[in-house]
Amino acid sequence: MNNDARLKTWNTYQAAWGPIDESERRRLLEQSVAVDCVYTDPGSQVAGREALMARIGQTQLKFPGAHFRNDSFLEHHEQGLFRWTMYDGAGRVFVKGESFGRFGEDGRLVQATGFFEIPTAAS
Asked: What sections of the protein cross the membrane (predicted)?
C-alpha cells in the first residue's frame, strides 16, 4: 500500500467523524477501519468498530457539526502521523491535534490514537 492509499484511508476515517447520518458513518468506517480496531484519545479508549461508531456519535452530540481537515501526513512501515484541525459547526477552529494510525494488512486502520487538549464546550 502506498502513501496515497493510506492517506485516502485516513481521510475516509476522518470523514466518518463529521456531521453525517449513521448509515454513511457506518459505510465510511467499514471502508477505513478493521472490525477490531482500537481507538484512543486523552478522554477515552474503545475497541471495535461498533464502539467507535458510538464514540463518534457522542462527539457529534456534544459538539454538533464538528469536522476535520488534515494539515499534514507522514507515513512509513504501515504507520501514519496525521496533524489536523477540528472545526466547529460554524467553521471556526475548535481543536488542533495529532493522531497516530497503524494500518493492517488489508490497508484499513487497526489503531488510531489522538493527541490533543480536551475541549470543554463547543465554541
From this structure: none
